[in-house]
Amino acid sequence: MGGKITTIEYDENVVEQAIKNFKREGVAETIEVKTGDAQEIIPQIESDRFDLIFQDVGDKRLYPLLFDDCIRVLKPGGLLVAEDTLFPVMNRFKKSHEELVESINKFNQMVADDPR
């Protein structure tokens, strides 16, 4: 079977709870937890290549900023899944999401225009 999961978590409290959960479920050996800012960590990844990247950054304004580095570490034929990239369309009139609309639209356009 093999394989490994790498997760990047910003909040140390979330990291602590996640590690407890991984140990409780007996999967801690297959999950690497990197603590910190994804915007700093992902560009530093050199040797790892990933079959799947599930991007769920709380600040959706980072999606376009992380796009090229995510593609760089994704294996050919790999899959990039980005959470909440359609919610501006669904919540067009929700004031709390207005500031994110531009970034998510930019990210969606980057994906649509990218030949990879």
Describe the fold and architecture.
This protein is α/β, with parallel strands linked by helices. It has a domain of 80 residues: Rossmann fold (3-Layer(aba) Sandwich), CATH 3.40.50.150. 41% of the residues lie in helices and 22% in strands. It has 5 helices and 4 strands. The strands form 2 sheets. A two-stranded parallel ribbon has the order 1-2. It has a two-stranded parallel sheet with strand order 3-4. Strand 1, helix 1 and strand 2 form a beta-alpha-beta unit. Helix 3 packs parallel to helix 5. The longest helix is centred in the C-terminal third of the chain and has 16 residues. It starts with a strand and ends with a helix. The mean pLDDT is 89.
Binned strand content = 15-25%
Instruction: Tell me the number of helical segments per DSSP (H or I, 4 or more residues long).
Output: 5
Structural class: alpha/beta
Tell me the series of helices and strands, N- to C-terminal: EHEHEHEHH
How does the major sheet shape up?
Answer: 2 strands, parallel
**Strand elements, count:** 4
Shape: globular
Q: Mean pLDDT, nearest integer?
A: 89
* Residue windows where pLDDT falls under 50 for at least 5 positions: none
What spatial order of strands do you see in the largest sheet? 1-2
CATH homologous superfamily annotation of the domain at 5-84: Vaccinia Virus protein VP39
- Helical content (DSSP H or I, runs of 4+): 40-55%
Any idea of the CATH topology of the domain at 5-84?
Rossmann fold
Write down the CATH class of the domain at 5-84.
Answer: Alpha Beta
